[in-house]
Amino acid sequence: MVFVTNADGGVSYASPEWTAFTGQPASDALEHGWFACVHPDDRETAIAFLTKARDQQSEYSLRARLRRADESYAWVMIGAVPSYGPPDRTFLGYLGSTTEITPSGSEPLSAYGTLARFVPPPVHPATTPGSALELVADHLLMAHGLIEQDHAKEMLPALRQALMTAGRLLARKMASSDQSDRFH
Asked: Which tens digit of pLDDT belongs to each residue from 80-95?
């Protein structure tokens, strides 16, 4: 599930998969409305952590529980990469993804976040694919997270530019559609 935030950290785009997964209309997820789907025991941790990430304009990974459309909860990994633009590399917000995960028995059963390189987990088999642009954004996020493992840091500026472009295109897609077309 791909998302875009503004510089204040409020969601400005949520992919249609958000609604399929949570049952919450994407329009209700905008700004900070998506927190209604975070497990009550994880909400305070998520809000505090995401505020810290935004204030530091850092890449991040956050593990928490989200309410599914059937009212059960699933563990997810939420991660994002900051976007910068003119003038003077102004912080624009984040392009990120949310992926259902199966926690291993060795991890603590609590929400937590990490301010570090975001490496998306493999897509959960139950996740329905999004639009071609959302799939491209997901793959760009994956490439961005993995590129340093191959010692190819010189590719990071091009990947960051591609991520920023994908975020703009998603925002443009949202702006050019009416409300009912944007949020399935």
From this structure: 999 888 788 899 999 9
